[in-house]
């Protein structure tokens, strides 16, 4: 009798939030999950929630060496079967008015959310090609519509939209489907981490007094909106469901819009600029001086 072969998937950013939820959900469905984490403590915590099939691997998507080491680990396990799916989920959110954001922080945002996704894809593509696998990139509604004070994050997600479209066409000859998931507000720790990082940026500015004079009130309004996103956003299980469809369906979608009000927000992206600016500014409590 032929031995059953479990489909294989690599997920980056599996320590918390969407990545962790995807890893556990796919493990429960019988996938052999290689869960990318940055610390062994996160690996141990994840293993407590999953079957013995789940294999944590250390991955920092901005560190080529960790990517290649993880890929070698996967290669040793899957052999000639190749890799069935890659979920590029790891990412960060840096918030700041563009007038004051340190350029190194802007570079960090783009390095992680843009360059890191392509670096990961490059490393695992040979294994994906062997299995005619699938790629899922974790985008955002912020890749369709820009928000004040989230310029760096929005820029990274706009860029990921374009890269995903290009990659989807480039990989057609090998039958490798590429999908983009575009969530709205999701209840994950990313916004809490973003607020903590933003406060550190403010504390290290050369002229924090001027920053607070110009943007203090507006920043507080944005913080309130970000806290609301974390507490009222939908559960990451909804995103995991979309990711599962993208890697398991005979006909995966090119885009998955997920979350409450996502279609309204996607429609707003097509509104005339002045009206769109007014609508978003009003919603976020920004007022003309």
What is the topology?
Layout: E1 8-11, H1 17-28, E2 32-37, H2 40-47, E3 55-58, H3 64-78, E4 85-88, H4 103-131, E5 134-138, H5 151-170, E6 177-183, H6 190-203, H7 208-232, H8 237-248, E7 255-258, H9 262-268, H10 273-283
Parallel strand pairs: 1-2, 1-4, 2-3, 4-5, 5-6, 6-7
Explain how this protein is built.
The chain is α/β, with parallel strands linked by helices and 289 residues long. The protein has a single domain, classed as NAD(P)-binding Rossmann-like Domain (Rossmann fold, 3-Layer(aba) Sandwich), CATH 3.40.50.720. The chain is built from ten helices and seven strands. It has a seven-stranded parallel beta sheet with strand order 3-2-1-4-5-6-7, with helices on both faces. The longest helix has 29 residues. It is globular.
Please supply descriptive tags for the structure shown above.
289 residues, globular, 7 strands
What is the CATH class?
Answer: Alpha Beta
Structural category is alpha/beta
Number of domains: 1
CATH architectural category: 3-Layer(aba) Sandwich
Oligomer class: single chain
The stretches of 5 or more residues where confidence is low (pLDDT under 50) are none
Helix percent band: 40-55%
Average of per-residue pLDDT values:
90
**CATH topology label:** Rossmann fold
Instruction: Give the total of beta strands.
Output: 7
What global shape is seen?
A: globular
Our count of helices gives 10
The CATH superfamily name is NAD(P)-binding Rossmann-like Domain
In what range is the share of β-strand residues? 5-15%
**SSE string, helix = H, strand = E?**
EHEHEHEHEHEHHHEHH
How far from one another are the termini?
75 Å
Q: For the CA atoms, what is the radius of gyration? A: 20 Å
Strand order of the largest sheet: 3-2-1-4-5-6-7
Describe the main β-sheet briefly: 7 strands, parallel
């Amino acid at each position: 009798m032929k031995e059953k072969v479990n489909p294989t998937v690599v997920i980056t950013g599996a320590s918390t939030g969407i990545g962790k939820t995807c890893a556990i959900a796919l493990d429960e469905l019988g996938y052999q999950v290689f869960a990318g984490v940055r610390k062994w403590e996160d690996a141990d915590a994840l293993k407590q929630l999953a079957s013995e099939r789940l294999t944590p691997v250390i991955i920092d998507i901005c560190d080529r060496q960790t990517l290649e080491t993880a890929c070698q680990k996967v290669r040793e396990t899957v052999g000639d079967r190749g890799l069935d799916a890659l979920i590029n989920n790891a990412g960060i959110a840096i918030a700041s008015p563009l007038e004051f954001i340190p350029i190194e922080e802007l570079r960090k945002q783009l390095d992680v959310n843009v360059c890191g996704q392509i670096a990961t894809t490059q490393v695992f593509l040979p294994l994906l090609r062997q299995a005619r696998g699938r790629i899922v990139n974790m985008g955002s509604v912020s890749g369709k519509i820009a928000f004040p004070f989230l310029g760096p994050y929005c820029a990274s997600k706009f860029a990921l939209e374009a890269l995903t479209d290009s990659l989807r066409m480039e990989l057609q000859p090998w039958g490798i489907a590429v999908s983009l998931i575009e969530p709205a507000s999701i209840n994950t720790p990313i916004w809490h981490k973003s607020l903590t990082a933003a406060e550190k940026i403010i504390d290290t500015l050369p002229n924090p007094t001027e920053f607070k004079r110009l943007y203090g009130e507006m920043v507080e309004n944005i913080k309130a909106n970000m806290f609301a996103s974390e507490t009222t956003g939908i559960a990451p299980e909804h995103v995991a469901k979309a990711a599962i469809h993208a890697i398991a369906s005979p006909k995966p979608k090119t885009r998955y819009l997920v979350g409450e009000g996502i279609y309204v927000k996607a429609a707003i992206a097509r509104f005339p600029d002045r009206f769109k600016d007014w609508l978003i500014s009003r919603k976020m409590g920004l007022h003309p001086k």
